[in-house]
Amino acid sequence: MESKRGWLKQSFGKRLNAIHSWNAWILLLLTVTGIVLSIGAIRGDLGSFRVTIKQLHIYLGVASILLIALYAPMIRKHWHQIRARRNQRANLVFVLALLIGWAGSGVILWQFRNLPPALNNSALFVHDLLTWVGVPYAVYHAISRSRWLKRQQRLDQAAATARPPAEQAVQTPAAASAIAAAPNQAPVATEDATARRTAAQAVITALKESPITRASFLRIAAGLLLVIAIGPAFYRWIKGAFDTGGSTTAEYIATDGNRMLPPPAPLPDSAAVVGGGAQGNFRIYTVTEIPAFSSDTWKFAISGLVDNPSAWNWEEFLKLKRTVQVSDFHCVTGWSVYKCTWEGIPLKQLLAAAGVQAKGKYVKFYSGDKVYTDALSLSQANGDDIMVAVLMDGKPIPQKLGGPVRLIVPQMYAYKSVKWLQGIELIEKEHMGYWEVRGYDNDAWVDRSKA
Ligand SMILES: Nc1nc2c(c(=O)[nH]1)N[C@H]1C(S)=C(S)[C@@H](COP(=O)(O)O)O[C@H]1N2
Ligand SMILES: [Mo]
Question: Is the keyword Oxidoreductase in the record (predicted)?
Answer without folding.
Answer: no
